[in-house]
Structure formats: C-alpha cells, structure tokens
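Demo today. Your pick:
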Amino acid sequence: MNIHTWKHWAFVTLILVLMSGCSSVKLDDYAGNSPELNAKDFFDGPLTAHGIVKNRSGKVIRYFNADISASWSADGVGTLDESFVFNDGEKQKRVWTLVPNADGSFEASANDVVGKSRLATSGNALFMRYTLTIPYKGKSLNVKVDDRMYLVNDTTLLNESVMTKWGFEVGYVTLVITKQ
C-alpha cells in the first residue's frame, strides 16, 4: 500500500469514527432512568411553563410563561390546554389531544400542528416530533419540531426543542414545566 492509499483510508476511517460519534440519541437510551415519566400522571391538573426562544444563532429572542390545564377523559384521551404569554405581549393558545395507542404511546394533535404526531416515553424521557405552524413576519410558517422532555423529579419536567426548516436548524426552545 503506497502512502497516498494509506492516507486516503486513514482519512475515510477518521470520518467514519467522527460520524459514529454524532449518532442520534434514541428514546430507548433513557429506558433505565428514573424517575419514570408517566404522561397520564404528570400531565394531570394545573401546570406552569417558563421558557425562552432562541434564533438559529443561539441568541435569546423571546421569553414566555404558560398556564397548562391537563386532564384525561374516562376513555383515556388526554387534553393539554396551553395558554402562552410572551414578553412582547403576544398570546398564543395550543390545545393538545392525546389519544392512547396500544403500545403505550399517544397520537398527539393540536390546533396549530399539521397532521398527527407520536408521543412516546421511556424511563424519564418523552420524545415527540411534529410540524408546527408559527406566526412569522405577518404570515404563517411551518417548522418541524423535535421535542425532548426529561422528568427530573415528580414535579419538574425540562423540555428542549429544536425547530428546523428545509433540514436547517432555525430556532430552539428551552422550558421548564412545573406540576402545581
């Protein structure tokens, strides 16, 4: 093997090693973590949320607070009624409907979500991906949202969201949800 061939294969190997380090985190990676997140238990009753929105550069551009009224019907369908107030005075309302699936996950839909999403939990984690319609410069814009939530104790859930458009990260939301 000549030096050029060796360098080529060394470079290819280095790239493969680096790429394997960037592999996506899976929900099942949290299977053994506690406290265990049971969506029906945590999302039941009054909750509050407090968070920030960052632009694609990572600069905080908005702050918000939200009141959430969470309940479950006799047939196991959940409702999360969320009322947001942003630091600029804008108000938003999102009402999630969570329909149980046989595998323990939920089919999630909301008034400003395109189509349906799958909400699933494992250990202390909850993952959900969906397309959200957001107001942007006087128009509506659809962005993909990758929501990841982590229960840190019986009353506190941390939520990190990455928003993408055409495969590019365009914003981030970080919030804490507290069970009252």
Observations:
- The longest helix spans residues 3-20.
- Confidence is low (pLDDT under 50) at residues 16-21.
- The two ends are 67 Å apart (CA to CA).
- The helical segments are 3-20, 39-42.
